[in-house]
UniProtKB/TrEMBL annotation:
Domain RNA polymerase sigma factor 70 region 4 type: start-end pairs: 103-151
The keyword RNA-binding is assigned to this record: no
Gene3D superfamilies: 1.10.1740.10, Winged helix-like DNA-binding domain superfamily/Winged helix DNA-binding domain
GO terms of molecular function: DNA binding; sigma factor activity
PANTHER family according to UniProt: ECF RNA POLYMERASE SIGMA FACTOR SIGM, RNA POLYMERASE ECF-TYPE SIGMA FACTO
Domain RNA polymerase sigma-70 region, residue spans: 13-77
Protein name in UniProt: RNA polymerase sigma-70 factor (Sigma-E family)
Family, per entry: Belongs to the sigma-70 factor family. ECF subfamily.
């Protein structure tokens, strides 16, 4: 890699590592899987950086993260895993999180990866329908339908006290 490309890559990673990890966590609901996915994506990105700079790196990298997380679900070992009754101690301190946040994250984790990614992009990262479609590599109509279905499922999963706060969002 040319020195200028390497500098650009390092600057991109320094500026985007934390938002990418947060995005990956919100999509998959697991800090370890999120960090693994981001690390895998950044390694692939380093190799292809000279081609990536011609595109929109923000959208391209988020799409790569969604694909990396989606690939994990296709692996047979992942499908054989079963959730445990009690969770082991984790690096994430749930004691500091609010009850609503925990309930919302649990409900979000029950959504399929692509639907969850669509909701995270639209509402957590405040992306437009056009941006979300570009990042996800799908049509704007798909983003609208995934958003509507995702919100509908969230309303079913959340307690009534929280569903009142999920407004009907025009698409």
């Amino acid at each position: 890699m040319r020195p200028s490309h390497e500098t650009e890559y390092c600057e991109f990673v320094a500026a985007n590592l934390i938002p990418l990890r947060r995005f990956a966590y919100l999509v998959c609901g697991d800090w370890h899987r999120a960090e693994d996915a981001v690390q895998t994506v950044l390694t692939k990105l380093y190799v292809d950086w000279h081609r990536t700079v011609r595109r929109d790196p923000q959208a391209y990298v988020r799409r790569m993260v969604v694909n990396a997380l989606h690939d994990v679900h296709r692996r047979s070992w992942f499908r054989r895993e079963r959730p445990a009754e009690t969770l082991p101690d984790t690096a994430y301190d749930r004691a500091e999180a609010t009850e609503d946040r925990l309930v919302l994250l649990d409900a979000l984790a029950k959504l399929p990866v692509r639907r969850r990614a669509t909701l995270v992009l639209r509402f957590w990262e405040d992306r437009s329908i056009e941006d979300t479609a570009r990042i996800m590599g799908c049509s704007e109509t798909t983003v609208k339908s995934q958003t509507a279905r995702g919100l509908h499922t969230l309303r079913d999963l959340l307690p009534n006290s929280m569903t009142e706060r999920i407004e009907v969002i025009p698409t």
